[in-house]
Description:
Elements: H1 3-30, H2 37-69, H3 75-84, H4 86-89, H5 93-109, E1 111-114, H6 121-135, E2 148-152, E3 172-174, E4 182-186, H7 187-195, H8 203-213, H9 229-247, H10 261-274, H11 276-282, H12 284-294, H13 298-309, H14 335-338
Parallel strand pairs: 1-2, 2-4
Antiparallel strand pairs: 3-4
Amino acid sequence: MNARHRQEQLTRRLSLVLSSIVFLLLLMMLLAGSHTTSEIVVRIIVAFLVTMLFYRLLSRKARRRAVLRKQPFPTSWETVLQQEVPFFHTLDELEKDRFREEVRIFLNEKRITGIKTSVDDTVRVLVAASAIIPIFGFPGWEWNQISEVLIYPTTFNEQYEFGSLRKHDVLGMVGTGSMNRMMILSKPELLQGFRAGQDRKNVGIHEFTHLLDKSDGAVDGVPSVGLPRSVITPWLKLIYKEMENIRAGHSDINPYGLKNEAEFFAVASEYFFENPGKMKQKHPELYTMLGRVFHQDPQARFKNALRSMVKPTAARLGRNSLCPCGSGKKYKRCCLANR
């Protein structure tokens, strides 16, 4: 049983305890004084019905998820994970089951809305994967900061506008003000982020990293969820050192990270998940620190995936499956061919 299941079971138990207390309090109130037998029966029934409604309200999310888990995982969603998400291939079987469950829950509880563009299963599953990859090291994580993801047909500007003659250079954005609890993603950039392989760019991961950063109340490049206070100062020093390397032309980290600490964290996170082997080789200190932030080691997962592929039992991967190295090529034309 994973952390999410345990939490949901605890929620249902607490809901039952609280509902029992409410039932007893209602009985005390409704049965105070003298009543006929028929009145007592009616009041007990009323107390019971009110209590049942209270329990259902408290436990509705846990009960809905329990029903959801009994349903088969959609074949079309599985196809997208197999063909479009290299991260998925680096997971072991238990982790893949957890990833599928996270996808199912995210898509059941969050709206994915196309604005003058269509939204198919590929787009929906890639949005969910973008949300799950950064927080996969935090089992049971709840994306309470967001309720809807808007999919735009193109890039857009800071005023959320697209399709005009104005300059549109925004690929994705976490909404603020009237757009609070929303995220906007450019559809072409979302698709390209997963299909480009090891280009170290993924707008979906970028924006959900901002949202993770925002979980402590501020988008400042210091995600307190993964960084203890004692590490914050070394983390900031590392950010500034890497920024200086970018300015001097001595770094392959996306220069967009020079905008501020939050953007550096986001572009470094894209690199961390898109091409962990290269980051670990070229930026070992940054890789180690991001590993602490995300509670993940994607390079180790990649190595384990490759190791399992050379065993006879690894035939489950399939020659035509997407190679877990993140190249974007089929396994038979990538690591299998190079073995």
